[in-house]
Amino acid sequence: MDVDCDGADNGARGCSNDPSGQGTTAFKDKVSKYGISDLNANVHPYVVFGNEGASPSFEPKDHGMEPLSVMAVVCGGKLVTYFFRQ
Questions:
Q1: What pLDDT, on the 0 to 100 scale, is given for residue 53?
Q2: What H or E segment, with its residue span, contains residue 80?
Q3: 71 pLDDT above the threshold of 70
Q4: Cα(67)–Cα(62) distance, integer angstroms
Q5: Residue 26 and residue 38: Cα distance in Å, rounded?
Q6: CB–CB of 23/7 below 8 Å?
Q7: Of 64, 73, 28, 24, nearest to 46 (Cα)?
Q8: Is 72 within 8 Å of 79 (Cβ atoms)?
């Protein structure tokens, strides 16, 4: 599993060592209606899921998975809850 720290405050705390981190996410406009400027991986854990156009390709929406839905991830035998960000 890869740690992705795109979004607000992407150079702080646990995200300070992500060289590919970007300052915004594709959901910045959508989450603003909840009173936050953007997703912040230090506060709002999320998983990037899907690889449309890759080989093999997987499009989450084809399987009923919608962006900003809640997902459960099992890592190291522990259940962790994340938001889905495509």
A1: 74
A2: strand 78-85
A3: yes
A4: 12
A5: 9
A6: yes
A7: 73
A8: yes
Say if residues 20 and 34 touch (Cβ distance below 8 Å): no
3 state SS of 75: strand
- The answer for residues whose C-beta is within 8 angstroms of residue 32's C-beta and 6 or more apart is 38
Please write the tens of the pLDDT for every residue from 19-67. Answer: 677 778 888 888 889 898 888 877 877 777 766 777 887 888 888 888 8
Q: What is the pTM of this model?
A: 0.63
In angstroms, the Cα distances linking 41 to 9, 25, 56, 59, 76 are: 8, 10, 27, 23, 20
In the structure, how many helices (H) and strands (E) does the chain have?
A: 1, 3
What tokens does 74 get?
A: 């099992």
